[in-house]
Amino acid sequence: MTPDQPEIPVVCEACGTRTSVAFEDVEDAVARHNEQLHDGDPVAEVDPAVLEELTDRLAKDIGLLE
């Protein structure tokens, strides 16, 4: 991981955990956690507030909010 690469917060309410994962590793980390601890059920996820912010910024950047 390079120093300028963002870390994304991942939360699992069922486990009561929160961690930060390198952007490029988020998908694998969430899938691995859910597979190992929740029988593959989609329990752990990117922090919903961060995901909403990213979605809003993307929509603005590509002109969906104009």
Structural account:
- It is built from two helices and three strands, in the order E-E-H-E-H.
- The protein is globular, with a radius of gyration of 14 Å.
- It is an alpha+beta fold.
- The mean pLDDT is 92.
- It has helices at residues 26-38, 48-61; strands at residues 7-12, 17-22, 45-46.
- Helix content is 41%, strand content 21%.
- Strands 2-1-3 form a three-stranded antiparallel beta sheet.
Task: Give the topology, please.
Layout (H helix, E strand, L loop, with lengths): L6 E6 L4 E6 L3 H13 L6 E2 L1 H14 L5
Antiparallel strand pairs: 1-2, 1-3
Largest sheet: 3 strands, antiparallel
Globally, the shape reads globular
Tally of extended strands? 3
Task: Give the end-to-end Cα distance, rounded to a whole number of Å.
Answer: 35 Å
Number of helices: 2
Rg (C-alpha, Å): 14 Å
- Give the assembly state of these chains: single chain
Q: Order of strands in the sheet with the most strands?
A: 2-1-3
Please sum up the structure shown.
The chain is an alpha+beta fold and 66 residues long. 41% of the residues lie in helices and 21% in strands. It is built from two helices and three strands; from the N terminus they run ββαβα.
List descriptors.
41% helix, globular, alpha+beta, 66 residues, 2 helices
